[in-house]
Amino acid sequence: MFAHKTLIPMKYVNSLAVIILLLGAFATSSCTKMKKDKLDETWRLIRVDEDSTVSWYELWQFEGEMVYMVTRPAGGTELDTLYNAEYSVKSGLSKTIVTFQECPNTTYNGDWEVLTLNKDILVMLNRTDGEFIYREFVKE
């Protein structure tokens, strides 16, 4: 005759929504920490065809909240610091963004999308006002 419907009380739905939001926030913050831990290394910039402006030996050293961009002059043995900047990492479900701030070379300031980050390779892309800076690195 009549179908009996079982309704879930609204308080359970609200509790479930809060739990799902908390789990999502925890997963996102854990992912950000994992990406930052993976990034906190020394990476050697390599020359790539897409950006032929890279013709020197350059390292990016991520340490704590700072990144140091250093170079070895031709024929030299010492490393010279080109720039340093503060950086932060935001990682979501589909992408990771590294934000540089306070870099004396303002070209580097802003958001860099991490295209690849594994134990050996780092690839980042900065898109600003229709321009882009593409950088590939190998772990030093």
Structure, described:
The protein is of the alpha+beta class. The protein has a single domain (10-139), classed as Beta Barrel (Lipocalin). The protein is built from one helix and eight strands. The chain has one helix spanning 10-39; strands at residues 42-46, 58-63, 66-71, 80-91, 96-101, 110-117, 121-128, 131-139. Strands 1-2-3-4-5-6-7-8 form an eight-stranded antiparallel β-barrel. The relative contact order is 0.15.
> What is the CATH third-level topology name?
Lipocalin
Shape: elongated
Work out the helix count: 1
The portion of residues assigned to helices is 10-25%
Q: State the distance separating the first and last CA atoms.
A: 74 Å
Number of strands: 8
Examine the secondary-structure arrangement and name the CATH architecture.
Beta Barrel
Radius of gyration: 22 Å
The major sheet is characterized as:
8 strands, antiparallel, barrel
| Number of structurally distinct domains | 1
Pick out the low-confidence regions: none
Share in β-strands: 35-45%
What structural class do you assign from the helix and strand content?
Answer: alpha+beta
Strand order of the main beta sheet, please? 1-2-3-4-5-6-7-8
